[in-house]
């Protein structure tokens, strides 16, 4: 098994070392040269369930289940994450198997017998394609929040929690107009962009306003194949993004700036464990902050690369376009799938919200969709 005694002592699961109710350790790493192993014995309490008991020179006794020791060495983190990533299916609107996208009514998410399976379908669909739907939801904030929170809690941001918005420019963002918005991901200016994006159209009495989704994973694959050097540049050159908001719309008495988000990060972010899988695409041409002016050649190269990427993302070949209607909530992986909106007429009330990436991953892990033991 090749475990060091330091590792074994640090992973002791006795009541003095580990709280098995909270799954937390009770000790930090204090001893860098631990007591010696005096004896190690294998025992079995039930059929095929084995334990190893180790007695240490300081009198401490540790017991490990064989499963625990073997689990830890079964697969490396790189292997298990690579396997999880390989289950994602890049898509074009022409080859996306629409029938495979989860479309689960909210009743099933609450049904004693169907709940687990329904949740699993939604999470699996999100991981594989970056899209899932919850149907038969009342077009109201409270009902939508409760439906979405059958999956994971809604994130609280500067925009609030799940909130309905329309073209009234209540906040300093194009979303609060009736203009078209090209494909982008949200929160490039946040240190951690929202994990999932939630949309629910409460009302629309006019024309247009269709939503378009673009698979960032497919974009990355196509882009790297066609423009390997540019892809590498966008993987290594961090670009700044920002969101600045004055207070004047909300309270004319206090016109000072009340929000200034700023973050600099890569357009294509790779998983730090496997180092070869796209973990996140960050693309929002509107929220680009001023680029620091460096070498003229470098900045030209950057504009060339970003321009080529923008043309590809704007190419209708990659666009899955549909109109959302009241009752159907769409969940989108904001680290992978870009969203856009056509301009529209009439009154349109759209609800939007986020789920944090950590909450989403936690649910994926519980369902065994991403690695549990690494
Ligand atoms: Fe957006
Ligand atoms: Zn112990």
UniProtKB/TrEMBL annotation:
Reaction(s) catalysed by this chain's protein: N(6),N(6),N(6)-trimethyl-L-lysine + 2-oxoglutarate + O2 = (3S)-3-hydroxy-N(6),N(6),N(6)-trimethyl-L-lysine + succinate + CO2
GO cellular component, one term: mitochondrion
Recorded GO MF terms: iron ion binding; trimethyllysine dioxygenase activity
Required co-factors: Fe(2+); L-ascorbate
Keywords: Carnitine biosynthesis, Dioxygenase, Iron, Metal-binding, Oxidoreductase
UniProt cross-references to SUPFAM superfamilies, sorted A to Z: Clavaminate synthase-like
Every Gamma-butyrobetaine hydroxylase-like N-terminal domain range: 6-69
PANTHER family assigned: GAMMA-BUTYROBETAINE HYDROXYLASE-RELATED (PTHR10696), TRIMETHYLLYSINE DIOXYGENASE, MITOCHONDRIAL (PTHR10696:SF51)
Function: Converts trimethyllysine (TML) into hydroxytrimethyllysine (HTML).
Similarity comment text for this entry: Belongs to the gamma-BBH/TMLD family.
Name this polypeptide is given: Trimethyllysine dioxygenase, mitochondrial
Species of the source: Cyprideis torosa
């Amino acid at each position: 098994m090749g475990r060091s005694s330091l590792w074994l002592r640090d992973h002791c699961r006795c009541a003095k070392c580990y709280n098995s109710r909270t799954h937390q350790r009770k000790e930090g790493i204090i001893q860098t040269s631990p007591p010696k192993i005096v004896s190690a014995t294998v025992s079995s309490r039930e059929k095929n369930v084995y334990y190893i008991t180790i007695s240490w020179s300081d009198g401490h006794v540790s017991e490990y289940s064989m499963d625990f020791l073997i689990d830890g060495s079964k697969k490396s983190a790189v292997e298990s994450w690579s396997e999880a990533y390989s289950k994602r299916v890049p898509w074009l609107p022409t080859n996306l198997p629409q029938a495979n996208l989860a479309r689960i009514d909210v009743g099933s998410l609450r049904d004693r017998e169907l709940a687990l399976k329904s949740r699993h379908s939604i999470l699996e669909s999100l991981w594989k394609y970056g899209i899932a739907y919850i149907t038969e939801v009342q077009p109201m904030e409270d009902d939508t929040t409760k439906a979405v929170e059958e999956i994971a809690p809604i994130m609280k941001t500067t925009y609030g929690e799940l909130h309905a918005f329309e073209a009234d420019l209540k906040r300093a963002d194009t979303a609060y107009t009736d203009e078209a918005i090209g494909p982008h991901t949200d929160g490039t200016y946040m240190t951690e962009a929202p994990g999932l994006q939630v949309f629910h159209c409460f009302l629309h009495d006019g024309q247009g306003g269709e939503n378009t989704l673009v698979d960032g994973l497919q974009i990355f694959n196509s882009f790297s194949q066609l423009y390997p050097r540019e892809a590498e540049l966008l993987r290594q050159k961090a670009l700044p993004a920002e969101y600045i908001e004055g207070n004047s719309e909300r309270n004319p008495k206090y016109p000072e700036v009340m929000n200034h988000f700023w973050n600099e990060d890569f357009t294509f972010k790779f998983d730090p464990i496997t180092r070869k899988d796209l973990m996140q695409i960050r693309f929002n041409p509107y929220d680009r902050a001023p680029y620091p002016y460096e070498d003229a050649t470098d900045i030209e190269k950057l504009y060339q690369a970003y321009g080529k990427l923008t043309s590809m993302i704007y190419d209708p070949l990659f666009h899955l376009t549909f109109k959302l209607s009241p009752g159907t909530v769409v969940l989108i992986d904001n680290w992978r799938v870009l969203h856009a909106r056509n301009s529209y007429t009439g009154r349109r009330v759209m609800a939007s919200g986020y789920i944090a990436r950590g909450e989403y991953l936690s649910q994926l892990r519980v369902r065994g969709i991403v690695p549990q033991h690494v």
